[in-house]
Amino acid sequence: LRPLGVTIDSSLFLTQLYEPSKIYKFMDLDAALEVAAIDGIADNILYLGDVSNSLGHEYGLVNLAAFLAQCMKETIQYDACDENNWDLFNGVYPLSNACGQLEQSYQNYKCPPEEQHMECPVDPNMEITATTHANWYGAPPGLFCAPKSKLPITGIWDHEYR
User: Fold this and answer.
1) DSSP string covering 72-121, please?
2) What is the average pLDDT across 50-69?
3) Backbone angles phi, psi at 45, to 5 degrees
4) According to the model, what pLDDT value does residue 162 have?
5) Which residues are CB-neighbours of 60 under 8 A, at least 6 positions away?
6) Which residues make Cβ contacts (< 8 Å) with residue 70, sequence separation at least 6?
């Protein structure tokens, strides 16, 4: 894939506006693939092929295509790596979506028993602001969260406000 790096950046990693991503670059994908395929992440490797199987490279390419398709669906098209505020409620975007969208509560997420070693404890004083966000018309700015003691009312992002 390395000889196609420039083409991948300019023709594949495109946003909804058909512009090359400012965030996602082939060079970074290449480095990540090397780690994921050789060292693995959390005892899992990204299968990119096996020389002992005559179709191994084809299975590997299908795996890579599926991975890139998911990346495109979730992030590249928006040129964002943080979660987007996309859950409308009564025509506006609640800023509380930073705490959970679709009636979820992110602080209550738990890992299954076999992955609990990767679970992070909840920091009740954590404050964080997303560094990226979607750029569609009317898109809210990056999500922000803080403890209720600091921010008891979150408000809304009204994309139709004039």
Assistant:
1) HHHTGGGT-SSPP----BTTBEEGGGGG-STT--GGG----GGGGGGPPP
2) 92
3) -115, 155
4) 60
5) 47, 48, 49, 50
6) none
Half-sphere exposure of 53 (CA within 13 A, CB side): 10
Among the listed residues 40, 47, 43, 41, the one whose alpha carbon sits nearest the alpha carbon of residue 63: 47
For the residues 27-34, what does the mean pLDDT come to? 96
Which residue pairs, CB below 8 angstroms and at least 24 apart, start in 67-76?
A: 68/12, 71/24, 75/24, 76/13, 76/14, 76/15, 76/21, 76/24
* Model confidence pLDDT, tens digit, residues 81-132: 998 898 988 889 999 999 899 989 888 899 999 989 889 898 989 999 999 9
Alpha-carbon distance of 78 to 72, in angstroms, equals: 8
Mean residue pLDDT across the chain: 91
